[in-house]
Specification:
The protein has nine helices and twelve strands. With 323 residues, it is α/β, with parallel strands linked by helices. The strands form two sheets. Strands 6-7-8-3-9-10-12-11 form an eight-stranded mixed beta sheet, sandwiched between helices. Strand 11 and strand 12 form a beta hairpin. The longest helix is centred in the middle third of the chain and has 18 residues. It is globular. The two termini are 33 Å apart. Bound molecules: adenosine-5'-diphosphate and magnesium ion. Magnesium ion binds next to helix 1.
């Protein structure tokens, strides 16, 4: 067990080992996530980037154990501060959710109950000592740039940006060691997006949680991520450090090319439902789309680590990838 000398907390606050998830559909199982491995350390902003349908939300929901009933974790471990949460009961898991790990979703309006005030939402999220409740709620609001008076209003009286700030305050209130943000700015305008991103980054710098930031926007990830994981059809095909290494995987390079050409439209799409109608592929997951494929790629490609923290699921991974 590795603890950080400064704070005494677990260094790898979130660790995912060999995670595979299936969806059971009319007695057939279809792969959703395949052999996912990575860890997020204290103070890190690990950005998970992938197209719609690549499995990002399924991964987030696996981590907080809130997958829909038709989904099944087939294999693997999810360690939160060193504890495998796949082996614990729902009551213990409820204790971990909110206290040790929080999640911020894409559409705050869908998660705020219109019948209850913001104050009630914040109180319901609080799991600490009652004596500190009022003070910690005010502090959380202050931290996300909202006035304490906002507690008396109802969700529909707030703008999208304010609603998302409330969600972030709810996520922060118990000082969790892990924060997951699943496309937290998709429903917001450009200016509000920038403000929310700066807020999340400021929170990371101040409290050093392990942050898992999920987005389809590689350009944004390149800007804020300390590491980036690229997802394609339920697989993490590459993990790299932006600004330190160039991504190597042919799919990552195509994604990067779309930014460099200032063309946000993807040239490689996942054919609708393709992945989910086939069994786990016996060839490289990117084989059909890859311009660089060789005969050798017609096999299951393992994720090849360059070191503990970066690596690629491509057969040509030995090449130099420094910037
Ligand atoms: N509630 C659900 N019921 C059935 N299939 C689902 C459900 N949620 C997601 N899926 C399927 O799981 C796959 C991964 O989806 P998801 O994790 O939401 O991807 P992403 O967040 O990257 O867009 C997709 O094929 C999607 O259609
Ligand atoms: Mg999603």
């Amino acid at each position: 067990m590795c603890l950080t000398p400064k704070t005494g907390r677990m260094e790898r606050m979130l660790e995912i080992k060999n995670l595979s998830v299936l969806r059971i559909e009319r007695k057939k199982s279809v792969p959703i996530l395949n052999d996912i491995n990575f860890a997020v350390k204290e103070g890190e902003m690990f950005c998970l980037v992938g197209e719609s349908g690549s499995g990002k939300t399924s991964l987030a929901l696996s981590i907080i154990r809130l997958l829909p009933k038709s989904f099944k974790i087939a294999y693997g471990e999810i360690l939160i501060n060193g504890k495998n949460i796949l082996g614990i009961n729902e009551r213990s898991m409820r204790n971990i959710r909110g206290k040790e790990i929080s999640i911020i979703f894409q559409d705050p309006a869908a998660y705020l109950d219109p019948l209850f005030t913001i104050g009630t939402h914040l109180q319901e999220s609080f799991h600490g000592k009652m004596a500190n409740k009022k003070e910690l709620i005010s502090l959380a609001l202050q931290e996300v740039g909202l006035d304490s008076e906002i507690q008396t209003v109802y969700p529909h009286q707030l703008s999208g940006g304010q609603q998302q700030r409330v969600m972030i305050a709810m996520a922060l209130i118990n000082k969790p060691s892990i924060i997951i943000a699943d496309e937290p700015t998709t429903a917001l305008d450009v200016l509000t997006t920038r403000q929310i991103i700066s807020l999340l980054n400021a929170i990371r710098l101040k409290h050093s949680p392990a942050m898992l930031f999920i987005t389809h926007d590689l350009e944004l990830a390149m800007e804020i991520g300390t590491r980036i994981g690229i997802m394609y059809r339920g697989n993490i095909v590459e993990i790299f450090r932006p600004g330190v290494q160039k991504p190597y995987h042919p799919y990552s390079k195509i994604l990067l090319g779309t930014i460099e050409r200032k063309n946000s439209k993807l040239v490689v799409g996942v054919e609708k439902n393709k992945f989910y109608n086939e069994q786990i592929s016996q060839v490289c997951v990117f084989f059909d789309m890859c311009d660089e494929k060789e005969e050798n790629c017609k096999k299951i490609i393992p994720f090849i680590w360059h070191n503990n923290e970066t690596g690629v699921r491509c057969i040509k991974s030995g090449r130099n990838t420094q910037v």
